[in-house]
Design a protein that fits this description.
heterodimer, A: alpha+beta, Arc Repressor Mutant, subunit A, 3 domains, nine-stranded mixed beta sheet, three-stranded antiparallel beta sheet, 16 helices, elongated, B: 516 residues, alpha/beta, Amidase signature (AS) enzymes, 11 strands, transferase activity (chain A), Asn/Gln_amidotransferase (chain A), protein biosynthesis (chain A), ATP binding (chain A), transferase (chain A)
Chain lengths: 502, 516
C-alpha cells in the first residue's frame, strides 16, 4: 500500500455503522512434548534441534496424539463454558508452504473438540460483557521462516530463506468467538478486554505461557461494519498477529475507521488479510482471501477419532482452578474492597501477588498497600510488569512483619524493599548489610532520651506538667539523633516515663 | 519338497535357494547350514537372474552378509532371535531403512536414505531376518504391473515378457525367481495379493492395523497395509508373526494380541476343513474374467468342499461400486500424502539455480519428480477433495465404503471366510495395459473390497490357467482380526492342491535362462 488509507472520524463511524467483531486466538500449549511426537516443546532452542521424522514430515512418519494436549483442550473448553464433543476427528488442512513440513496442517475442521460457550469479560468501567465462543479446536503449529537479504525480514526481495522446524508440531488451540455484534462504540475495548481475560484465564489454568511477545498467544481480529438499520454483515478483513493487548484495541479501531471511510465513498471492502503496524497504528493489505487456496479439508486418516467419555470430562471439570472472575469476587469479599479498589488492583496485575503475600502472613490491607502503591510505582519506573519485579510476596510479607514487630519504620521498610529490588538479597540480608534495624535497645535509647530532655528543658517541663503532646518534640529529636533507626513508639514511652507520666 | 537342482549353466535355483523359509530355518537351527551360506546362495542367485528379472532396486550384499553372520553368532551362543533368524528376505522399497535408500520407485526419492528405520524393518532386524535388498514397485505403490517404476519394470519369472503384477511386483518376482524365500509387500488395493496371484506365490494383506505403518511411505493411509509374502502359506505365517503387533508409533495399529497364524497354518496343513463355512462371492465372476481363471477358481472351490468345508454362495451387492469408491478415496489421500515432496527437506530438487523462486522450485520438482500415474492420481484426488465437489466424490465414496463393510459384515454372519479369484486374469504382457488406465485398474477389482473394509485377505496359488499356463490366485477373505482363518484355509487348500497335482506349484516355475 503506497497511499495512506483514508479514515473516518470514530464518532462518525458509530453514527453510521455497527461494528461486528470476530476474534480468533491461537494459544500454544505448554505441554512437555509436541502435539504428535515426543520432541520437546520449547521456545528459543537452537534451530532444528527439537525435531524428529514425525514433526519434519519425513516420508513414512506417523502422528500420535499428545494426550495432555487433548486434556488441556477439554479443560479450556470447560472453562469457556463450552460443550465437549462426544466424538470428533482431526482433519488435514492442505496447502503448500515451506515451513509446513507435510504441506498440510493437522487440525480440526467441522468436528471441533469443544464448542458453543461464552466468556464474561470485565470492561474498564467494571461492566461485564459476554462474548460468545463458537468453538475451540486442536491443531499443530508450523515452523518458522526467516528471510535473509530482503527488507525487514519480509519474503519479498529476500536472497534466501532459512527454515526452523522447532516450532513445527507444537500444540495449538484455536479459540474462535461467535460474531460480536452488540459492542458498538466499545468494540475495540471489548476486543482488548476479551483477549486479556482469555490470557488471565489460560494463565490461571497453567495450560500455556500465554506470552504475546513470544507468540504463545496470538490474536487475529476480524472486523466488518453493518450500516445502521441493516442486518446483513459487511465484508470482513482479518488483521493478523497483533502482538499486544493495546494493539488489538488500536487495530480494531483503525479497521472500523478505514472500512467506514471506504463504505462512505461507495467503495467495496476487499476480503483480505491485513498486517498491523505497531509504530503507525495502521493496517496494510496482506494476502487477498480471493487468492487463498481451497484447503481441501478431509478427516485425518492417520489418527483415530477422539471420543472423550463423560466420566473423563467430569473428572477434568473437577481439575479446573478457581476462575479469575470467581477469584476476583472472592478477593473483593474477603478483603472488603470497593469496586474501584478491586479494579485498580486487577489493572495493576496485583491480585495474585497480594493473595500470595496474604498467604505468607500479611494482612490484606497492608499487602494491598505495598503492591498497589509503592511497588506499582517502582514497576512503572522500571517500565515492567509488577509480577516481574525481583521481589517475592514472601519477602514483602517479611517486611510487613518486621514493621509490625516494630523492627522497621515505614521509611526503613521502603529502604529494605529497594535493597531487595536492587538484587542485594532478601529483607534480612539487606537489613544486616545496611544496619537498618530499628534501635530498640532501651539502654542506648535511654541515653538519647536523656540527652534530648536535657537539650530542651522547656519541653521537658511541659511534659512533666501533664502536657504530653509536647513529647513529640523530644521524640523527634531522638529520632534525628538515631538517624531514624529508633522505634518511635518505644522512644515516646521512654520520654513519658522519664517525665513521670506513666 | 523342492528337488530342483541347478543345471550346469546355473540357471535353476540351487539346493538352498529352492528351499522354503521354514525349511531353511530348520536347517539353520539344526546347524546343517549357516545363515551366511544361505544368504550368499541367495545373493549369488540374485546376481545371476537380476539382469532378466529386475526385482531389486537395491541389493545390500555386505550388510546382508553381516546380518547373517550376526544371526549365526547368536545361534552359536544359543540365543537365536526368532524362528526365522538367518533367513533372507526381500523388502519392498516403500519401507524406510537407515542402511539402504528408500525410493518408492520414484525419481523424487532417488538416492534418498532415510534417517530412521520403519517399524517393519526394525522388527525384521530384531528377529534376525536378513534383508537382502529393496524390491521394485510401481511408483509410490500406484499401479498393478510395476511398469510405473521410475527405474524400469520387473519381469515375471513365469514369462519374462509379462508383468509380475503390482505394485509389489518386485517382491513377488523375487520369490518366484528364487532370489528370496520371503518378502514384504504393501497392499492398498491389492498390491500384495494381485502380484502373488500372477507369480504363483502367497501374499497376505493382514487386517488393517495388524502391522504397523510407521515408516511405510504412505500412498493412501486408510487403506495401506503391510503384509508377508512367501512361496508357501506356512512361510507367510511365520513372517506375519514377526512383523505384526501393536506399535505405539502408529495410532491406527491394533492394540490386541496377534492372531495365532503359524499355528493355524500348521493346523490347516492337516487338510481338515470340516466345520468351516466358505462363501463364494457371487459378484466376482462373469464378464471380464478369463476362462482359465474361473476354471481354476471353481476347481479350488471343489477342493475346499472335498476338505470338508461347507461351501455356499453369498451376495455382496455393493462390491461392484468398490472400484469407483477406491479411485476416489485413494487418490484423495495420496494427493495430501504426497504433498510433502516439495524439494525443501529431502529428495529431488529441480530449479535451485538462483533463477527460480521457492514456488517454482516446488513446481518444477514435482513436475519432473513424479511419473504420469502419480500425477494422474494427485490430480484426481485434488479434484475430489475440492470445495464444492467433496460431498459428491469423497463423501459419497466414504458412504460406499460403509456399505461394503456392511456387505462383509452380513456375509460373515453366514460364513467364516469368503473366496473369489484374486484377479480376473493371469499376468498380462508388459506394455499391454500401459496406455489404458481403466484396464489396469480392473486388475484390482476383487482385491479392493478388503482394503475398503479393512478385513484380512490372502492370495494363494490355485494352479495355472489352461489357456496360457500362467498362475492363478485364489483369494480368501476373513473378518478383521481373524487372520488365522486365512492361514488355516490357505494351508489346507495348498496341501490338497499339491497332493492332487503330484508336485508343488513352485516346481513348475520355469527355470530362468541366465543372461550372460
Amino acid at each position: 500500500m503506497t497511499a495512506v488509507a483514508e479514515i473516518m472520524d470514530y464518532d462518525e463511524v458509530l453514527r453510521n455503522f455497527d461494528p461486528v467483531l470476530g476474534l480468533e486466538v491461537h494459544v500454544e500449549l505448554s505441554t512437555a512434548t509436541k502435539m504428535f511426537c515426543g520432541c520437546a516443546n520449547e521456545f528459543g532452542a537452537e534451530p532444528n534441534t527439537r525435531v524428529c521424522p514425525v514433526c519434519l514430515g519425513m516420508p513414512g512418519a506417523l502422528p500420535v496424539v499428545n494426550g495432555t494436549a487433548v486434556e488441556s483442550a477439554i479443560r479450556i473448553g470447560l472453562a469457556l463454558n463450552c460443550q465437549v464433543a462426544e466424538w470428533c476427528r482431526f482433519a488435514r488442512k492442505n496447502y503448500f508452504y515451506p515451513d509446513m513440513p507435510k504441506n498440510f496442517q493437522t487440525s480440526q475442521y467441522d468436528e471441533p473438540i469443544v464448542f458453543d460457550g461464552h466468556l464474561d469479560v470485565v470492561l474498564d468501567d467494571g461492566e461485564t460483557f459476554r462474548v460468545g465462543i463458537e468453538r475451540a479446536h486442536m491443531e499443530e503449529d508450523t515452523g518458522k521462516s526467516s528471510h535473509v537479504g530482503g527488507a525487514a525480514g519480509r519474503i519479498h526481495g529476500a536472497e534466501h530463506s532459512l527454515l526452523d522446524y522447532n516450532r513445527a508440531g507444537v500444540p495449538l488451540i484455536e479459540i474462535v468467538t461467535k460474531p460480536i455484534t452488540d459492542a458498538g462504540e466499545r468494540a475495540p475495548e471489548v476486543a482488548r478486554a476479551y483477549v486479556t481475560a482469555l490470557r488471565d484465564l489460560l494463565r490461571s489454568m497453567g495450560v500455556s505461557d500465554v506470552r504475546m511477545d513470544q507468540g504463545s498467544l496470538r490474536c487475529d481480529a476480524n472486523v466488518s461494519l453493518t450500516p445502521k438499520g441493516s442486518t446483513r454483515f459487511g465484508t470482513r478483513t482479518e488483521t493478523k498477529n497483533v502482538n499486544s493487548f493495546r494493539s488489538i484495541e488500536r487495530a480494531v479501531r483503525f479497521e472500523m475507521r478505514r472500512h467506514a471511510a471506504l463504505l462512505n465513498e461507495g467503495a467495496e471492502i476487499v476480503q483480505e488479510t491485513r498486517h498491523f503496524d505497531e509504530s503507525s497504528g495502521e493496517t496494510s493489505s496482506g494476502r487477498r482471501k480471493e487468492e487463498a487456496e481451497d484447503y481441501r479439508y478431509f478427516p485425518e486418516p492417520d489418527l483415530v477419532p477422539i471420543a472423550p467419555s463423560r466420566d473423563w470430562v467430569e473428572q477434568l471439570r473437577g481439575t479446573l482452578p478457581e476462575m479469575p472472575w470467581e477469584r476476583r469476587r472472592r478477593a473483593q469479599e474477603q478483603w472488603e474492597l470497593s469496586d474501584e479498589e478491586l479494579r485498580d488492583l486487577v489493572n495493576a496485575g496485583a491480585l495474585d501477588l497480594i493473595a500470595a503475600t496474604v498467604d505468607a502472613g500479611a494482612s490484606p490491607s497492608e499487602a494491598r498497600s505495598w503492591w498497589v502503591a509503592y511497588l506499582t510505582q517502582r514497576a512503572n519506573e522500571r517500565g515492567g510488569e509488577l509480577a516481574s519485579l525481583p521481589i517475592t510476596p514472601e519477602q514483602v510479607a517479611r517486611v510487613i512483619e518486621l514493621v509490625n514487630e516494630g523492627k522497621l519504620t515505614h521509611k526503613l521498610a521502603r529502604q529494605v524493599v529497594d535493597g531487595v529490588l536492587d538484587g542485594r538479597g532478601g529483607p534480612d540480608e539487606v537489613i544486616a548489610a545496611d544496619e537498618l534495624e530499628v534501635v530498640s535497645d532501651d539502654s542506648s535509647l535511654q541515653a538519647a532520651v536523656d540527652e534530648a530532655l536535657a537539650a530542651q528543658p522547656d519541653a521537658a517541663e511541659k511534659i512533666r506538667g501533664g502536657k504530653v503532646q509536647a513529647a513529640g518534640a523530644i521524640v523527634g529529636a531522638v529520632m534525628k539523633a538515631t538517624q531514624g533507626q529508633a522505634d518511635a513508639k518505644r522512644v515516646r514511652e521512654l520520654v513519658l516515663a522519664a517525665c513521670g507520666q506513666q | 519338497m523342492t528337488s530342483t537342482t541347478s543345471g550346469p549353466e546355473g540357471s535353476g535355483p540351487t539346493e538352498l535357494t529352492g528351499l522354503t523359509a521354514s525349511e531353511l530355518a530348520a536347517k539353520i537351527t539344526a546347524g546343517e547350514v549357516s545363515a551366511e551360506e544361505v544368504t550368499r546362495a541367495h545373493l549369488d542367485r540374485i546376481e545371476a537372474v537380476e539382469p532378466d528379472v529386475h526385482a531389486f532396486l537395491h541389493v545390500n550384499g555386505q550388510e546382508a552378509l553381516e546380518a547373517a553372520r550376526r544371526a549365526d553368532e547368536d545361534r552359536a551362543n544359543g540365543r537365536a532371535a526368532s524362528p526365522l533368524a538367518g533367513v533372507p528376505l526381500a523388502l519392498k522399497d516403500v519401507f524406510t531403512t537407515t542402511d539402504m535408500p528408500t525410493t518408492c520407485g520414484s525419481r523424487m526419492l532417488e538416492d534418498w536414505t532415510p534417517p530412521y528405520d520403519s517399524t517393519v524393518a526394525g522388527r525384521l532386524r530384531e528377529a534376525g531376518v536378513v534383508i537382502l535388498g529393496k524390491t521394485n514397485m510401481d511408483e509410490f505403490a500406484m499401479g498393478s504391473s510395476t511398469e510405473n517404476s521410475a527405474f524400469g519394470p520387473t519381469h515375471n519369472p513365469w514369462d519374462l515378457e509379462r508383468v509380475p503384477g503390482g505394485s509389489g511386483g518386485g517382491s513377488s518376482a523375487a520369490l518366484a525367481a528364487f532370489e528370496a524365500p520371503l518378502a514384504i509387500g504393501t497392499d492398498t488395493g491389492g498390491s500384495i495379493r494381485q502380484p502373488a496371484a500372477v507369480t504363483g506365490t502367497v501374499g497376505v494383506k493382514p487386517t488393517y492395523g495388524g502391522v504397523s505403518r510407521y515408516g511405510l511411505v504412505a500412498f493412501s493411509s486408510s487403506l495401506d497395509q503391510a503384509g508377508p509374502c512367501g512361496r508357501t502359506v506356512l512361510d507367510a505365517a511365520m513372517l506375519h508373526e514377526v512383523i505384526a503387533g501393536h506399535d505405539r508409533m502408529d495410532s491406527t495399529s491394533i492394540d490386541a494380541p496377534v492372531p495365532q497364524v503359524t499355528a493355524a497354518a500348521r493346523e490347516g496343513a492337516a487338510g481338515d476343513l470340516r466345520g468351516m463355512r466358505v462363501g463364494v462371492v457371487r459378484e466376482f465372476a462373469g464378464e471380464g474374467y478369463q476362462r482359465g481363471v474361473l476354471d481354476s477358481f471353481n476347481a479350488a472351490v471343489d477342493t475346499l468342499t472335498s476338505l470338508g468345508a461347507e461351501v455356499v454362495e453369498v451376495s455382496c451387492p455393493h462390491f461392484e461400486y468398490a472400484l469407483g469408491a477406491y479411485y476416489l478415496i485413494a487418490p484423495s489421500e495420496c494427493s495430501s500424502n504426497l504433498a510433502r515432496f516439495d524439494a525443501m527437506r529431502y529428495g529431488l530438487r529441480v530449479g535451485d539455480d538462483g533463477e527460480h523462486n521457492t514456488e517454482e522450485v516446488m513446481s518444477l520438482t514435482r513436475e519432473q519428480g513424479f511419473g504420469a500415474e502419480v500425477k494422474r492420481r494427485i490430480m484426481l484426488g485434488t479434484y475430489a477433495l475440492s470445495s464444492g465437489y467433496y460431498d459428491a466424490y469423497y463423501g459419497q465414496a466414504q458412504k460406499v465404503r460403509t456399505l461394503i463393510s456392511r456387505d462383509f459384515a452380513s456375509a460373515f454372519e453366514q460364513v467364516d471366510v469368503l473366496v473369489s479369484p484374486t484377479t480376473p486374469t493371469t499376468a498380462f504382457r508388459i506394455g499391454e495395459r500401459a496406455d489404458d488406465p481403466m484396464a489396469m485398474y480392473l486388475a484390482d477389482l476383487c482385491t479392493i473390497p478388503s482394503n475398503l473394509a479393512g478385513n484380512a485377505s490372502m492370495s494363494v496359488p490355485s494352479g495355472v490357467s489352461a489357456e496360457d499356463g500362467l498362475p492363478v490366485g485364489l483369494q480368501i477373505m476373513a473378518p478383521a482380526m481373524a487372520d488365522d482363518r486365512l492361514y488355516r484355509v490357505g494351508a489346507a487348500y495348498e496341501t490338497a492342491r499339491d497332493a492332487a497335482s503330484g508336485s508343488s506349484l513352485v516346481d513348475r516355475i520355469p527355470q530362468l535362462e541366465v543372461a550372460r
